[in-house]
Design brief:
By secondary structure, the chain is mostly helical. The chain contains 8 helices and no strands. The longest helix has 46 residues.
C-alpha cells in the first residue's frame, strides 16, 4: 500500500524534492539574472569602444582626400592610385580590435546561453498532473537528465566565461592606452594585474581553507 500510486512514500518524496528543486532553481535564477544584467551593460560598453576603433582597420578616405588636396603637386601623380592597396593596419590596432571583438563575442555568447538555461530551468520545474508516483518518477527522470547533460556545470561555467571576456577587454584596453601614453598604460596594467591576481587568489583560497567565504 505504501508503494501504491497514491502511497505516502511518493508524497513524501515529492514534498522533499520540491523543496530541494525550489532552492536549487532559485539560486540558479538569481545568479543568471545578475549575470544577464552585467553582460548587457558590459556588451554595451565594449560595443562603444569597438565602434570607435574598428575604423582604424580600413582606409580613412576623408583623410586621404584632405591630404591629396593639401599636397597639390603630389595630387596629380596619385590621382589614379588606390589608397586601399597601400594601406596596412598597425599591429596595435589589430590586437586591440581582435581582443575587443573577442570580448564582445564572449559576452554575447554568455548572454545567449544564460537565456537558454533559464528556459531549461523553467521546463524542468513544470511537472504534469497525475498521481504522486507518476509525478515522482517524472521528476527523478528529469533530475537524472539534468545531471547527465551537465546543466549545473554549464551554469557554473557562465560566470567564468564572463570573467574571461572582462579580462580580454582589459588586455585590449591596456594596449589601447599604451598607444596614447606609456605612463597611463603602466598604471592601468598594474591595476589590471592586481585585479587578476586578487581574482585568482580569491578562487584558490577556498580550496585550502574551508571557512573562507570567497566562494562563487
Amino acid at each position: 500500500k505504501e508503494m501504491s500510486a497514491t502511497g505516502r512514500v511518493w508524497k513524501t518524496y515529492m514534498d522533499e524534492s520540491t523543496k530541494f528543486d525550489v532552492d536549487m532553481v532559485e539560486n540558479w535564477r538569481d545568479g543568471l539574472d545578475m549575470l544577464l544584467v552585467f553582460a548587457a551593460l558590459f556588451s554595451g560598453v565594449v560595443t562603444t569602444f569597438v565602434v570607435q576603433t574598428y575604423q582604424s582597420l580600413s582606409v580613412d578616405y576623408a583623410q586621404v582626400t584632405a591630404s591629396f588636396h593639401f599636397s597639390g603637386g603630389i595630387r596629380t601623380s596619385c590621382r589614379n592610385s588606390d589608397p586601399s592597396t597601400a594601406f596596412v593596419a598597425k599591429s596595435s590596432d589589430l590586437w586591440i580590435n581582435s581582443l575587443w571583438f573577442t570580448s564582445l563575442v564572449l559576452s554575447l555568447t554568455t548572454t545567449l546561453i544564460a537565456v537558454l538555461t533559464k528556459q531549461w530551468i523553467n521546463e524542468y520545474m513544470i511537472l504534469p498532473s497525475g498521481n504522486p508516483r507518476d509525478r515522482a518518477r517524472i521528476r527523478h527522470f528529469r533530475f537524472i537528465g539534468l545531471e547527465q547533460w551537465h546543466v549545473p556545470l554549464i551554469i557554473g561555467l557562465l560566470p567564468i566565461l564572463m570573467h574571461v571576456a572582462l579580462g580580454v577587454f582589459l588586455a585590449g584596453l591596456v594596449i589601447f592606452v599604451c598607444s596614447l601614453s606609456t605612463a597611463m598604460a603602466s598604471a592601468l596594467g598594474c591595476m589590471t594585474g592586481t585585479g587578476a591576481l586578487a581574482y585568482l587568489v580569491s578562487n584558490i583560497l577556498p580550496l585550502f581553507y574551508t571557512n573562507c567565504p570567497y566562494k562563487t
